[in-house]
Amino acid sequence: MNVKRIQADGANLRIKQIRSVVGQKQNMRDTLRSLGLKKPGNVVERKADAATAGMINTVSHLVEVEEAE
């Protein structure tokens, strides 16, 4: 599920990097690093707070987001 706008509702999210940062702007690289993603295929779980939702919305074209159980 590639969602364009994540809401800060406190749910647990599983974020997977699906595209490389090669050719992306520096703020995109920094945002992925802040999320804890280093290379395509990496997966992290984060709470959907305001900061995380903003970061995901910034790099939505590079990541895949789903709700974690």
Automatic annotation (TrEMBL):
HAMAP family: Ribosomal_uL30_B
GO CC, any one term: ribosome
This protein's UniProt keywords: Ribonucleoprotein, Ribosomal protein
PROSITE patterns (alphabetical): RIBOSOMAL_L30
UniProt record similarity statement: Belongs to the universal ribosomal protein uL30 family.
Pfam families: Ribosomal_L30
InterPro entries referenced in this protein's UniProt entry, alphabetically: Ribo_uL30_ferredoxin-like_sf, Ribosomal_uL30_bac-type, Ribosomal_uL30_CS, Ribosomal_uL30_ferredoxin-like
NCBIfam families, A to Z: rpmD_bact
Gene name of this polypeptide: rpmD
Name used for this protein in its record: Large ribosomal subunit protein uL30
Assembly with partners or alone: Part of the 50S ribosomal subunit.
Superkingdom in the source lineage: Bacteria
Keyword presence, Cell wall biogenesis/degradation: no
Domain Large ribosomal subunit protein uL30-like ferredoxin-like fold, first and last residues per copy: 13-63
